[in-house]
Inverse folding.
């Protein structure tokens, strides 16, 4: 007979790392009661195995009463209660795999317990005993210390064992409260009961468990779940040889979404895999719980029945087999999910072209669950982040090894550049939309609208800005609308945007490369709705540009802070105006004629003109003047942007 102090030490050692696992107490006492009734059922015909579980708890106490109609503490059975680690041979025959240690949970998790039992003695007479557990004396449990008594009349024709456990101290009651916080009502507790003892329930037709949970009655039996349960037996060759498994599909009221766990059972009780987990990924409106049972698990579960110790390779093989079985079972669901995923992928590509390159279509479409747009975006962002981190870690390195040399030419680097260009081209598209809004003749109400020159100016380039370095933080402009050669600037290719009210043209662009011809471009931006001096007899738009050219010719340093021989400068003037204003300019009395249409544009013109150097009308300087309509420039820039998009999407070859 074990000593009480030794038992308490064993209990502390066994459960000290399981302080928050109050469920282990319920699992141990309930499984022992189930064992008892199933053993009796095997011996008697017309016997209905039954458990009655009554749980009451409040802020001050938790009381658990569990009664089973097993054989009670017969002379044979009582031997296993007087000593630990003594295996019950009858349980062994039923593959219950007893270790003789389950009662340690009662010692550890309760404050006081009591067994009440009615059994038949060796003469077949019904006897009753009531025993505290563990014994208040030094011994663990000694039947001889407790006098047999005659059972009450109502108990004369049945045997049973009833365990009553109390939890009222801070630690023990606190553990119970933590558990019941997760399962606060009879419905939730019933679900936990089924999940925990599922193999016992589903394989025993007659077993009935009546539960009273804080006054609420529920019943658990095979009939409750059998009609909504499917079995999928399979075998698989593992490290220990060929093993048999049973996969159970139990209908539940909620959907299956994403990764769905496969719950394992060992010795008919729920247990976790130590080295991994089993799961199946799918979205299914008809939800199922997935359970897996096998004697293979029974062989490798720990003493608490909590952890199954099998190799990771076996876990992977089992999971693969489960996936194969369920892929067939849910084939129509998977097909519909993949159709939905394809629609989401199509929408993703349309909305986020800069992220498309970071997604492998097959990886998305082949998924068995519905991959929503949000998940696709996140996956693309994660992949882009990984590549971008690699880019910054390697791009500026000296070529230390072959990998660094090849990264700038790699597919990953191409993806990053493609994404950046997509964003830039999309930015251009939004700028062009703003230009189109400025060009529109009427407002939303259909009334004539008037756009100020300053609105157009600010769209192309911020007023008062001088750009001489493309890395400058102020290098934010949209002069590319005019031509992509006006995208980046340098120390010998500059641009100046004048302030409002200055006696200067709107924008000057000049090239001062010592190896090339000096050039200056005078850009005059007119209102997109009505230029103030189009066709003006005193000074039209063309005459205005010529005057600005003359002023620069005479005072280059004053105009642009540029010391240059203006005789050696090539002059160009560009006027951006509405096509109606260009027509007005070219048909006015002040126009000298000679302007020719620019090829492939509808309302734009050019002429090799000149301006006066001084008061002598014979002293002329050549200047090429081009008049572009906003309509033409918008269409040209939009077409160019569309081509960029198609190139990035590889919609046509550039050969």
């Amino acid at each position: 007979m074990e000593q009480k102090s030794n038992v308490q030490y064993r209990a502390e050692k066994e459960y000290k790392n399981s302080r928050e696992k109050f469920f282990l107490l319920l699992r141990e006492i309930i499984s022992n009661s189930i064992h008892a009734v199933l053993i009796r059922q095997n011996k008697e015909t017309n016997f209905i195995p039954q458990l009655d579980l009554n749980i009451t708890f409040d802020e001050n106490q938790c009381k658990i009463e569990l009664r089973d109609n097993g054989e009670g503490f017969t002379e044979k059975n009582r031997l296993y209660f007087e000593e630990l680690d003594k295996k019950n041979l009858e349980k062994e025959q039923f593959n219950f795999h007893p270790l003789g240690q389950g009662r340690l949970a009662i010692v550890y998790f309760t404050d006081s317990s009591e067994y009440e039992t009615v059994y038949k003695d060796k003469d077949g007479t019904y006897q009753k005993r009531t025993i505290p557990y563990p014994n208040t004396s030094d011994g663990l449990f000694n039947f001889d210390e407790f006098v047999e008594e005659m059972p009450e009349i109502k108990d004369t024709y049945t045997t049973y064992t009833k365990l009553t456990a109390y939890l009222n101290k801070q630690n023990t009651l606190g553990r119970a409260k933590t558990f019941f916080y997760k399962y606060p009502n009879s419905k939730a507790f019933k679900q936990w009961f089924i999940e925990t003892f599922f193999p016992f329930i589903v394989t025993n037709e007659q077993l009935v468990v009546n539960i009273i949970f804080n006054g609420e009655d529920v019943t658990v039996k095979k009939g409750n779940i059998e009609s909504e349960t499917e079995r999928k037996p399979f075998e698989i060759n593992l490290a220990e040889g060929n093993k048999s498994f049973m996969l159970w599909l139990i209908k539940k009221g909620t959907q299956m979404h994403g990764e769905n766990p496969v719950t394992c059972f060992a010795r008919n009780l729920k247990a976790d895999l130590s080295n991994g987990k089993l799961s199946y990924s799918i979205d299914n409106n008809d939800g199922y719980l997935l359970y897996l049972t096998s004697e293979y698990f029974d062989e490798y579960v720990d003493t608490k029945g909590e952890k199954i110790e099998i190799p990771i390779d076996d876990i992977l093989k089992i999971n693969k087999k489960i996936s194969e079985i369920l892929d067939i079972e849910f084939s129509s669901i998977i097909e519909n999910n993949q159709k939905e995923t394809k629609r989401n992928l199509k929408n993703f590509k349309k909305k986020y072209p800069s992220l498309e390159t970071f997604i492998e279509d097959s990886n998305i479409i082949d998924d068995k669950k519905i991959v929503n747009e949000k998940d696709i975006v996140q996956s693309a962002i994660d992949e882009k982040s990984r590549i971008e981190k690699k880019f910054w870690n390697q791009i500026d390195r000296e070529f230390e090894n072959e990998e660094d040399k090849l990264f700038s030419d790699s597919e990953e680097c191409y993806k990053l550049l493609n994404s950046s260009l997509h964003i830039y081209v999309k930015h251009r598209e939004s700028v062009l939309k703003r230009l189109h809004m400025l060009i529109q003749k009427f407002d939303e109400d259909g009334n004539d609208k008037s756009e100020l020159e300053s609105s157009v100016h600010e769209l192309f380039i911020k007023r008062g800005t001088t750009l001489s370095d493309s890395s400058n933080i102020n290098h934010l402009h949209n002069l590319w609308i005019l031509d992509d050669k006006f995208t980046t600037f340098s120390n010998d290719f500059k641009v100046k945007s004048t302030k409002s009210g200055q006696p200067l043209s709107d924008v000057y662009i000049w090239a001062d490369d010592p190896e090339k011809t000096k050039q200056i471009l005078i850009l005059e931006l007119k209102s997109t709705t009505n230029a103030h001096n189009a066709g003006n007899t005193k000074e039209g738009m063309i005459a205005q540009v010529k005057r600005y050219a003359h002023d620069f010719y005479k005072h280059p340093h004053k105009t642009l802070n540029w010391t240059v021989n203006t005789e050696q400068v090539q002059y160009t003037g560009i006027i951006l105006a509405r096509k109606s204003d260009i027509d007005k300019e070219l048909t006015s009395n002040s126009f000298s004629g000679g302007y020719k249409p620019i090829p492939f544009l509808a309302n734009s013109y050019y002429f090799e003109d000149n301006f006066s150097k001084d008061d002598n009308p014979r002293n002329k300087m050549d200047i090429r003047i081009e008049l572009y309509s906003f309509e033409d420039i918008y269409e040209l820039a939009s077409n160019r942007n569309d081509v960029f998009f198609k190139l990035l999407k590889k919609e046509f070859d550039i050969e």
About this structure: The radius of gyration is 44 Å.
